[in-house]
UniProtKB/TrEMBL annotation:
It is a multi-pass membrane protein. The keyword Lyase does not apply. The keyword Transmembrane applies. Residues 195-217 are annotated as: Disordered. CDD domains: MFS_MefA_like. This is MFS transporter. Keywords: Cell membrane, Membrane, Transmembrane, Transmembrane helix. The chain crosses the membrane at residues 237-259, 271-292, 304-331, 384-403. It is found in: Cell membrane.
Length: 429
């Protein structure tokens, strides 16, 4: 797995992704803290944070078609440039005076546009850089970058907010985006003229598999949705991804509310919760790298969602620092593993010529539930954050039983060995 970092093109791509993720983790604490201070309303905070998905809902389909037909490197660079602009504006407004929620909502919508463009471009870039055979290892390394960012980002954000204010934490976010742009430029130079064997035209088995796949016009804007609707495993993985994303955004907001309003922690201590999640992510990445090739992915996926449910229930009952940290460790470690399993398998079962469109089709549903999840999370927290955590823990427990019933699905021919975990039986879909 670590051998991929010896290749300059992937190393620079990974560094850029790590920098961008660190900035996002700074904002994950800085933005809700800033809005809660400005509005004193959890519902308004949740509604404002939901606006980062609005642009994604509008732009996902045209962005997917454009990225599939054009340069993935240019699309990724454009996404980072847009993100720098929005985060710099947010930081400047926070530093000069009170922040109005509607202005924050507009800038968050711009960040959402940058995110959908980056997501559509990044997965094809990973395939282009490492090939299909090492796709799972690449996803696990990217999740490792997210784990380290989740470990360090909240500690850094909490310290900056506690001493200087949320505006300076957002300014640090903008600096990480600048580093991401520089890294993407270096990755593009290193990968210039390079093409993996898996990127070349289909072999005969791959062509046969493509003929057997759900039919579609090759460049249709709605092609990604048609594929997700007709391919059983891809459809189930997209639904599971929506569930995981809803969990991520809802628990992120509930964690801040639990620490700030229930436990009466300051910003630095609140950062401990998210850093505990980062530590759990590191453990999950290492564990998944060690056992992923020996355990069926469906069993790993079921176990990860079940452990996430357990962590959510622990948080619902937590009254001490130790209990909160234990719940956060269990929840986000399991959630991290579940995201790797879901995203790598969805990428593996997607035909190469539809990669961006399928990615944004799944992302469009994901963006919708993220926006709705933030609004509902804010509303549920108004009733009681512990009841909200308890209810969602039960939802995740039910989801783990649903995933367990999937059985094992065989890999599609273009996926090669990139699927995590052996699949010894034929698909039951």
């Amino acid at each position: 797995m670590l051998g991929l970092l010896r290749e300059a093109s992937f190393r620079w791509l990974w560094i850029g992704r790590a920098a961008s993720l660190l900035g996002m983790r700074l904002a994950d604490l800085a933005l809700p803290w800033l809005l809660l201070q400005s509005t004193s309303s959890v519902w308004v905070t949740g509604a404002a944070l939901a606006c980062d998905r609005l642009a994604a809902l509008v732009l996902s389909i045209p962005v997917g078609v454009w990225v599939d037909r054009g340069s993935k490197w240019k699309a990724a660079l454009l996404a980072e440039a847009l993100r720098i602009t929005a985060t710099s504006a947010l930081a400047g407004l926070a530093l000069v005076g009170p922040v109005r929620p509607w202005v924050t909502a507009l800038l968050l919508a711009s960040l959402g546009a940058a995110d959908v463009l980056h997501i559509a471009a990044f997965r094809p870039l990973v395939v282009h850089t490492v090939g299909w055979a090492r796709l799972a290892a690449a996803f696990n390394l990217n999740e490792g970058a997210d784990a380290v960012a989740t470990l360090l980002g909240p500690l850094l954000a909490g310290t900056i907010i506690g001493r200087y204010g949320a505006g300076w934490a957002l300014a640090a976010d903008a600096l990480t985006d600048l580093l991401a742009v520089v890294s993407l430029l270096a990755a593009g130079v290193a990968a210039s003229g390079r093409q993996h064997p898996e990127e070349r035209p289909y072999s005969q088995p791959q062509a046969a598999a493509s003929r057997d796949a759900p039919k579609r016009p090759g460049s249709g804007a709605w092609d990604g949705f048609r594929y997700l609707w007709r391919a059983p495993l891809a459809r189930r993985l997209a639904v599971a991804g929506c569930l995981l994303s809803t969990t991520s955004v809802a628990v992120g907001l509930w964690g801040v509310v639990l620490a700030r309003d229930e436990l009466h922690w300051d910003a630095e201590r609140t950062g401990w919760i998210f850093s505990a999640m980062g530590a759990a992510n590191v453990v999950a990445v290492l564990l998944l790298g060690a056992i992923g090739d020996r355990v069926a992915w469906s069993r790993l996926f079921t176990g990860a969602v079940a452990l996430a449910a357990a962590g959510t229930l622990v948080l619902a009952a937590a009254r001490s620092v130790l209990a909160v940290l234990m719940g956060a460790l269990l929840l986000d470690g399991a959630l991290s593993a579940a995201f790797v399993l879901q995203s790598s398998r969805l990428t593996a079962v997607t035909p190469p010529d539809r990669m961006a469109r399928v990615t944004v089709a799944a992302g469009l549903a994901d963006d919708g539930v993220r926006a709705l999840g933030r609004v509902l999370a804010g509303s549920a927290a108004e009733v009681g954050v512990r009841w909200a955590l308890l209810g969602w823990g039960l939802v995740l427990a039910a989801a783990s039983l649903w995933i367990h019933r999937w059985g094992r699905f065989s890999c599609w021919p273009w996926a090669g060995p990139s699927c995590l975990g052996p699949d010894r039986r034929r698909s039951t879909a």
